Amino acid sequence: MIPQSFIQDLLNRVDIVDVVGKYVQLKKGGANFMGLCPFHNEKSPSFTVSPSKQFYHCFGCGAHGTAIGFLIEYSGIGFVDAVKELAQGVGMTVPNDDDRLPPAQRAEAQAKSLALSDVMTRACDYYRKQLRGAQNAIAYLQKRGLSGEIAARFGMGYAPDAWDGLKTVFPDYQNEALVEAGLVIDKSEEEGAGRKRYDRFRDRIMFPIRNTKGQVIGFGGRVLEQGEPKYLNSPETPLFQKGSELYGLFEARQAIRDAGYVLVTEGYMDVVALAQLGFPQAVATLGTACTPTHVQKLLRQTDHVVFSFDGDAAGRRAARRALDACLPHAGDNKTIQFLFLPAEHDPDSYVREFGAEAFEAQIKDAMPLSRFLLKEVAGEHDLRTAEGRARAQFDAKPLLQAMPASALRLQIVRSLAQMTQSTPAEIEALFELAKPVARARIAPPKTSRPAPVGLERQILRLLVAHPVLAASLDHEALEVLARLVPERTEIWAQLAAASQAMGEHATFAALAEQLRATGGEFEDLIAEIAADQESDVNTARLELAGALRQTKMKLLKAEMEQLAASGLQSDEARQRYRQLMMQQDQLRREAQSESGQG
Questions:
Q1: Band of residue 509 on the pLDDT scale cut at 50, 70, 90
Q2: 83, 421, 555, 575: which is deepest, by most CB within 10 A?
Q3: Are 26 and 34 in contact (CB under 8 A)?
Q4: Collapsing DSSP states into helix, strand and coil, what is residue 376?
Q5: DSSP state, residue 465
Q6: Which residue has the higher pLDDT, 498 or 77?
Q7: CA distance 42 to 163
Q8: pLDDT digits (tens, 9 = 90+) for 101-112
Q9: What is recorded about the domains (predicted)?
Q10: Which secondary structure element, helix H or strand E, spans residue 195, and what is its range?
Q11: CA–CA dist 249, 129 (Å, integer)
Q12: Which residues pair with 130 in a beta bridge?
């Protein structure tokens, strides 16, 4: 858990214009900066970045947030990774309660990671330079229909047919970082005491694998013609874990947003060839089965994932593993499909033979996750027999148990029930599904808290836009606000406490980031403030004082009307009424005094 104080300090140190400017071309427009929104297609800029609020807002699609939120949305990384990336840029170290390493050990680990990154970057540059003069490699790429432009875009290179070609880049060829990065193999000789060291990649087309920041973390090497293995990948290293990374994701991020979906293929060459042929939204797993982490990364980029597999037995097995990885993340707002090409084709060959439009049509007709799941569990079982239907249910049980409770799961349960001559309630009971829907009466939805209006909204808006004002709320003001809307008492206190905790350096961006974690209570208000021009804090202070005064007047008037309606029978009631009248007069004088000053 990263302390909120660190988040506030970080947001005070980074400049959102610099952060967004690395990814979006921004131009000054008045007090703000403008650009084309990276989150939806547009021809005229509606995306604004406010230096004073340290907030971005798109008037077209409504996207908004802090520098942290932008990195999460744009790069598809998690909250912690976004914080770490921003912190690294301003020389801050993210505190981590779980990290019990002594400072010296932590510094050593960071130094090792930097050394490995440096080694990988230099190796990538070397391989790229080697490709320029390797006619055999260039001829192979041309034969595969790849242009120099696409090779450059993916940073492709060539590892020469030499045992120690990297010596030209790393004169200290004995450097342990070369082994740790997976570039060099250090093998003990079976005879004698010496050691033999040589380049891992030789005479191969090199595909650099980048993380979401664009840093090279590994390589895939393909033989030029015949040879085994056809693809050779970097081993697992501190920088590179195959089960977490996807080839081409860094290059495909914008294309995925433009297309509205991501296409997951089986190989490096598929990704590069498809980008050449008009499908730059393709990525690939790295010689390993699709994992839940892969799926999670993809769903951070888009709500629509299409897996493309060969139609042969190996392709079916890969698709089944992908299905298993998707189930924990399958939901009502996600679309996951499976595309099976004819056994003799991969995506590259299919597009070249039948054209881009035919491939696009195949993608549109891809099999939905629900149908693929039911097809898998039906398998070769004879559903005309009780045994066949029971076996289908047996195979379906772990798959449905892996899914979160959702309308999608209920639809699959209904289809399975029909297929196996059961009822949805029987399936849910038999499978012991979490939060069953079919056999439980659905509770009526809870009445949602009404959106704030009038004075309440005006005050909330002022306090969120200027947290320094929320921090200055005293006990009397909080009591007045609690009486204005009793069901929001906790909200007022939460807002004041959050602002007070941040102190005099509280900012709208820092408060918005903290409120984001509490749910959607403030989301509309934050978006509204982000879209408006910056307001002066002194003007806002006067406006807040006026709004609080109106609130007090409203409460006084309500109590006076209640007393008058009772007939003012007792001395106590009459005395209370006079007190309220005096308070009312005092508030009017304050209002006139402020009006005169204004």
A1: confident
A2: 83
A3: yes
A4: helix
A5: H
A6: 77
A7: 51
A8: 666 776 777 788
A9: Contains an N-terminal zinc-binding domain, a central core domain that contains the primase activity, and a C-terminal DnaB-binding domain.
A10: strand 195-199
A11: 24
A12: none
